[in-house]
Amino acid sequence: MIVSYHVSVVLLLTSIASLAESFSAARVFSTVHCNPPTTTASTSLRAISNPLRRRKIDGSKNTKKKSTEKDALIAHITDITDYKTRVVDESHNITVVRFYSHYCKSCRASEPHFFKLAKDYQQYNVNFVEVPLTPQTKVLHDALGVPSLPWTHIYHPDAGLVEERKVSKKFIEEVRQCLR
To answer: Residue 136 — φ and ψ, nearest 5°?
Structure first.
């Protein structure tokens, strides 16, 4: 009885090992020898499997105009020195800083509203800056005491930090009121 159990476990492990080898061999073969799929079915599958992609089902990218317009209105901070030059050293305009994360659902939902706010206040020379939560900017988030995401700081050139508050979709009008 014990011998048959031992034999069945050995056979099971051997079959698992052979399956793993066949899967890894198939993966190597597909990545080395096969071209990437170009059919619309695979494109739609990729769009369904990754909902964060902003791409039409047919594969065309229509977000170029919006992305470049957003980049022109909102500066993106990548490290502490960039934050110092864009926010701390600013001596003429009010600066609105949005702290966010790419994986935060509330941050993604409030992004178009923050963009609209930047568009509305473009004529008043208000600077808008976004600081994502990355390994390079984590120290900045911690040092400035950002309690939650999305969060905003409003800096006046003479007084420094004058307002800090949540900037989710629900509270964007309060941020607008602070800028008036």
So the answer is: -75, -30
In eight-state DSSP terms, residue 176 is: H
Return d(Cα 132, Cα 126) in angstroms, integer.
Answer: 20
Torsion of CA 130, 134, 137, 138, to 10 degrees: 120
| CA-wise closest residue to 131 among 88, 168, 76 | 76
Q: What is the pLDDT of residues 74-128, one digit of tens each?
A: 999 999 999 999 999 999 999 999 999 999 999 999 999 999 999 999 999 899 9
Tokens describing residue 35: 């071209």
Residue 145, both tokens: 């005491």
Tokens 């990729």 appear where? 46
CB atoms within 10 A of CB 94: 19
